[in-house]
Amino acid sequence: MKLTFFVRDLALKHTFTIAHQSRDIQDTVIVKLEDKGFYGLGETTTNPFYGMTQENICMSLEDSRRVVETEPWETPEQLWEICKEIFVDNPFAHCALDMAAWDLYTKKRGKKLYEYLNLNPKAIPLTNFTIGIDSVDKMIAKMKEVVWPLYKIKLGTDHDLEIIRELRKHTDAPFRIDANCAWTAEQAIEYAVELKKLNVEFMEQPLGKDDLVGMKEVFKYSKLPVIADESCIVESDVKKCHGLFHGINVKLVKAGGITPGLRMIKEAKKLGMKTMVGCMTESSVGITAIAHIAPLLDYVDMDGAMLLKKDIARGVIITAESVIFPEGNGIGAELVDLVD
Q1: pTM score > 0.70 for this model?
Q2: For 289-292, which contacts have Cβ atoms below 8 Å and span 24 or more sequence positions?
Q3: Other C-beta atoms lying within 10 Å of the C-beta of residue 86
Q4: What is the pLDDT tens value at each position of the chain, 340 positions in all?
Q5: What HEC string does 275-316 produce?
Q6: CA atoms of 155 and 161, how far apart (whole Å)
Q7: What is the DSSP code string of 153-207?
Q8: DSSP class of residue 30?
Q9: Is the Cβ–Cβ distance between 131 and 153 less than 8 Å?
Q10: Strand 226-228 relative to strand 200-204, pairing
Q11: Which are the contacts of 176, defined by CB distance < 8 A and separation ≥ 6?
Q12: Contact 290, 302 (CB under 8 A)
């Protein structure tokens, strides 16, 4: 078994702004696992909000080298367990390794990941296309640039309702809105009344992750469903979100990979909650991994590679009508600079 990893910078088509950060470049880390003529790829992007950088991700991966390359492990789940203490403070690094392990493992078995999981690729929900915070004119221009049947609109300004009202004039497509912790309970409850009239499907993480009292009020009185994001990072958060949110958005990068992500989805379903997987502006390596587990979900946000100026990989092709998987087994994504 051989572990390698390397960094890449993903240039975005447009400055991407949410309530607590803006960026023009998304840093990413790619992991490659090689064994017996096969290789698997995994990815994690960085995020300053969570203190995750290319440097500390690579340091954590280096710390895992001995275990990965010399300890006996057969399945991705086994590798995840034996590495969990190494990655206890860096789930982003754990995600990239876990994803690569799933790619390698299913390639060795001659199956696509969705086949191994007994999932139907025709059952994938439509992904939304995300419009970041900007001037209203620029947000409208972004919608016209990518005409899509479902949009996620990032909010967290002092004129959020005005933004949605203006955008609604230019499309009939349903909206999902994501305030990224920017509102109070009173705002969320008040805004939900108007947002429902404007064909908004749900609100994602309207309040700060620790505002449990406020979320109880929002859950009780909101005219729209609420989906947890920042409040649902790891497996233990799923039960905590029950009774506060109608559903959870699992980010594989933040959760530590596909292995815990699948468990979180299963737990949420047991609790009667809606399930969603979201992206962190990954290349087609990470996005293709999300697509393989998307048949499990009620909602999916896997537009990350669509936001890039230039993708560093080839993988799943997403259109408004279909999701086309790469021909290869495993996750099936390939880095362009490794194959060209």
Answers
A1: yes
A2: 289/42, 289/43, 289/99, 289/102, 289/103, 289/113, 289/252, 289/258, 289/331, 289/333, 290/252, 291/124, 291/315, 291/316, 291/318, 291/323, 291/325, 292/112, 292/113, 292/114, 292/117, 292/119, 292/325, 292/331
A3: 19
A4: 999 999 999 999 999 988 778 899 999 999 999 999 999 999 999 999 899 999 999 999 999 999 999 999 999 999 999 999 999 999 999 999 999 999 999 999 999 999 999 999 999 999 999 999 999 999 999 999 999 999 999 999 999 999 999 999 999 999 999 999 999 999 999 999 999 999 999 999 999 999 999 999 999 999 999 999 999 999 999 999 999 999 999 999 999 999 999 999 999 999 999 999 999 999 999 999 999 999 999 999 999 999 999 999 999 999 999 999 999 999 999 999 754 3
A5: EEEECCCCCHHHHHHHHHHHHHCCEEECCHHHHECCCCEECC
A6: 9
A7: EE--STTHHHHHHHHHTT--S-EEEE-TT---HHHHHHHHHHHHHTTEEEEE--S
A8: E
A9: yes
A10: parallel
A11: 128, 150, 151, 152, 153, 200, 201, 202, 203, 204, 299
A12: yes
* Contacts for 246 with CB less than 8 Å, ≥ 6 apart: 202, 219, 225, 226, 227, 273, 274
CA–CA separation, 79 vs 23, rounded Å?
A: 33
Structure tokens at 86: 């190494």
- The residue whose two tokens read 């390596």 is 285
